[in-house]
Amino acid sequence: MCSASTSSTRSDSNETADRAGKLKIEHSIIDGVRDLLKRLLAANPEIRSVIPGVIRPVRDAKGEIQVRVTVQTQNGWKAIALSQGARQELFISTGLGKDELERAIGRVLGGS
Predict the structure, then answer these.
(1) 9 three-state secondary structure
(2) Please, what is the Cα angle at 83 between 98 and 50, to 5 degrees?
(3) Do residues 18 and 49 lie in contact, with contact meaning Cβ atoms separated by under 8 Å?
(4) If you compute the radius of gyration of the chain from its CA atoms, what whole number of angstroms results?
(5) Which pLDDT tens digit goes with each residue over 18-58?
(6) At what angle do helices 98-110 and 33-43 cross, to 10 degrees?
(7) How far apart are CA 41 and CA 105, in angstroms?
(8) Alpha-carbon torsion angle 112, 12, 10, 25, nearest 10
(9) Which residue among 9, 10, 48, 112 is least enclosed by CB atoms within 10 Å?
(10) Which residue ranges make up each domain of the chain?
(11) Using CA atoms, how far apart are residues 5 and 46, in angstroms rounded to an integer?
């Protein structure tokens, strides 16, 4: 698990993709996670895309942003972002292994 600090609101967007086209926006994104994902994509060209999923409230998501890489998918990895009383699934399309992806996320969180 990796973590970093963030502000306390959520950001909404009707965009379908960011400027680079690698961050697919189909739902709102927990505040602070959008910037984290943009930095992750910019620093790691081997990550093809990130698709954030639905946001759900949870009790254990307080304080700094935390990202847990959970299970391998057909195209990469599923991760969970936790922050501000909410959790959000992240579908990360990449050829990186779990350890490599966790290190990449940790580097980005450490630079927040």
Answers:
(1) coil
(2) 45
(3) no
(4) 13
(5) 445 777 666 688 888 999 999 999 999 999 999 999 899 99
(6) 120
(7) 10
(8) -50
(9) 9
(10) 2-6+20-110
(11) 25
Place of tokens 């994902």: 37
Got the DSSP string for 47-108? EEEEEEEEEEE-SS--SSEEEEEEEE-SSEEEEEEEETTEEEEEEEEES--HHHHHHHHHHH
- Contact indicator for 84, 6 with CB cutoff of 8 Å: yes
Amino acid at 108: V
Res. 17: pLDDT tops 80: no
Task: State residue 14 phi and psi, 5-degree precision.
Answer: -100, 5
Count CB neighbours of 104 within 10 A.
20
